[in-house]
Amino acid sequence: MPYQRTKPLSLGVKAAFPGFIPPALATKIDKPPTGDRWVHEIKFDGYRVQLHLANDDIKIFTRRGNDWTKRFRKIAADAYLINAGSAIIDGEVVVPAADGTTDFSVLQNELKGNSNRIIMVAFDLLYLNGQDVRKLPLLERKAALKKLIAKTAIQFSESFELDGREMFKHACKAGLEGVVSKVRDSRYPSDRTNDWVKVTCAQRETLPIAGFALDGGKWDGIYIGREKAGQLIYAGKVDHGFTPESEKELRARLKPLIRKTQPYAKKIAHRGIWVEPSLLAEIEYRAKSAEGKVRHPFFKGIREDMT
Predict the structure, then answer these.
(1) Do 226 and 236 touch, CB atoms closer than 8 A?
(2) Beta strand 203-215 with 178-183: parallel, antiparallel or unpaired?
(3) Is the pLDDT of residue 52 over 80?
(4) Are 225 and 206 in contact (CB under 8 A)?
(5) How far apart are CA 273 and CA 267, in angstroms?
(6) CA–CA separation, 102 vs 152, rounded Å?
(7) Catalytic: 43?
(8) Phi and psi (nearest 5°) for 250?
(9) Confidence band (pLDDT; 50, 70, 90) for 59?
């Protein structure tokens, strides 16, 4: 018997289905905000996605608007039970561990197979049943979202109304990536604003790969850079976090990008095999020097969703 949708929810301002919407981005800060105007959510370590439902047509887009529906087939199947004629949902695709933590490198490995363990965690609603709901207060959008996905395998990202410092302390103790804090009555912005802010337990950055090193033919890490005023500045060497599989994949991905000269604006005194800096790496590190070099860096994976 085919799945029957009941009478759909309706709220917001009548509008045509907008297609992909540039996602709201959180501004990185050093300390979590406090006060009653803020609510706090867990920061997940995965791929930011936008789920589109138009009748029975389901699509999943990356944060840059690339269609990854085929890669996220399981999420598309989970979304079929959403009780709506049309909807746009903002969220993150992750692979949760038994303790609730998420890890980007685990997600990348899972996507090389059948992706049976991936789930979508939904945290905002942008459009519903012919209505644009982005101007509604955050908590009103989230209340509608929670009801919308209640009978599906898509998980809901709760907002916690407690002190931001306490939330951050508990998140880091539990091994989570960090906290995203949002103004409770804020509209949905399609850019980076101070209504959404984030604090991470460890430093993370997405940086271009400028080259790689071999030690007697054996993999010896990657050289990374940071874009500044249109130039690539040396940001350090990363030699931790690689597996035999990720080393093999990186070699294959970087080989076609090899070039004769360093891509850095200022030449560095390191020997390496230099590449066009078009491949982006997710790097975790403890601190950053005054020159911008990362300290104790750890490779987490390639960011294909940001190109």
Answers:
(1) no
(2) unpaired
(3) yes
(4) no
(5) 13
(6) 20
(7) yes
(8) -65, -45
(9) very high
Judged against a pLDDT cut of 80, whether residue 221 lies above it is answered with yes
Within a 13 Å sphere around the CA of 33, how many CA atoms are in the beta-carbon half? 23
Q: Taking Cα atoms as reference points, which of 51, 4, 44 lies closest to residue 26?
A: 44
Q: Structure tokens of 70?
A: 């085929």
Q: What is the pTM of this model?
A: 0.76
Task: Write down the catalytic residue from 7, 31, 43, 267.
Answer: 43
pLDDT reported for residue 296: 86
Residue 118 has pLDDT above 60, yes or no: yes
Token digits for 108?
A: 């990348």
CA 286 – CA 298 distance, rounded (Å): 9
Between vectors from CA 197 to CA 193 and to CA 203, what angle results, nearest 5°? Answer: 125
Residue 61: which residues within 8 A CB-CB, separation 6 or more?
20, 49, 50, 52, 67, 68
Query: Rounded distance, CA 270 to CA 273, Å?
Result: 10
203-306 CATH: 2.40.50.140
Rounded mean pLDDT of the chain?
91
Q: What is the pLDDT of residues 178-203, one digit of tens each?
A: 999 999 999 998 888 899 999 988 88
What fold, for 24-200? D-amino Acid Aminotransferase; Chain A, domain 1 (3.30.470)
Domain boundaries, the chain: 24-200, 203-306
Q: How confident is the model at residue 266, as a pLDDT? A: 93
Predicted local confidence at residue 10, as pLDDT:
52
Spell out the residues 6+ positions from residue 11 whose beta carbon is closer than 8 angstroms to its own: 128, 131, 133, 136, 140, 144
Rounded Cα distance between 142 and 134, Å, is 11
Cα angle at 18 between 12 and 20, to 5 degrees?
120
